[in-house]
Design brief:
Number of helices: 7
CATH architecture of the largest domain: Beta Barrel
Strand content: 25-35%
Structural class: alpha+beta
Helix content: 25-40%
Number of domains: 2
CATH topology of the largest domain: Thrombin, subunit H
Largest sheet: 6 strands, antiparallel, barrel
Distance between the termini: 59 Å
Low-confidence stretches: 1-14, 131-140
Oligomer: single chain
Radius of gyration: 23 Å
Amino acid sequence: MAAPSLARTFDSASRRRVRRKLIRVPLDLIALQSGIPNTMPGRCTDLSEAGAGVIVAGELILGQAVAIELRLPNVGLPIRARAQVRYQDRLHYGLQFVGLPMEQREMIRYWAAQAPAEQKAAKAEEKDEPAVSPALPALEAVPAEERRIRRIRVRRRRFFLLLAFMLALAALGWWEWQKAWNRLEESSSGEAARGKAPLRVPSDVMDQQILYKVDPAYPEAARTAGTEGLVVLDALIAPDGSVKRLRQITGPDVLAQAALEAVQMWRYTPYRSAGQAVEVETTVSVEFRLK
């Protein structure tokens, strides 16, 4: 019997507060197994700022805490989130985000607002009815029992093809996923302090390191147009606490330049790793509100 569609199951949940949009991007999922982080390759099938539907080549249990990382189309930085397993059906899992930062929510909203029109075609693929080839006889001319057998065969074929694909992905990509996880562990133990790569620090931690902060001047063009919003920037902080580099991630373009000019003058307490001041990457959120 065919497995129920995860996207369809989620859409029918009446208690969902935020509607998810279909997406097909790779992800890696990290779960603790016997106290050891285990990285599982997979794919995200639908996403909102509240949670995600995923397919992973591994076994999870309801209520289990996990971490995921994925990249959204047209968004520069990856989404890194903690989540809890709320739904399970074979290889399909439903995740609910836990404590998702504001800048991550804004990146998901930005992607959702520019979601491609191909989602209509993706929804059609989730239907149980198989597409009819012009070479096949018309359904009206096929007996009901034979049609039922065809559906079962098509569903079984889809399931085994998906299973074979996921196993092949796990076999071919396991080394790459493990290498990526090792890089993350190395960075947390002071690899960045030795100058090989900037250390990635959460925005809420770096907010506590701010020594000097300049509020942005509200652009007159934005004020006249009544434009408000949140500008999210990717920032590189030098070992001395100065802002070395800034790049816009999301937010209205008419407000972005004012945010860049203001944050460029901010100063931070030098961030230390293994006793040394190091260069770090973080995100900065600047909110513009008309009073």
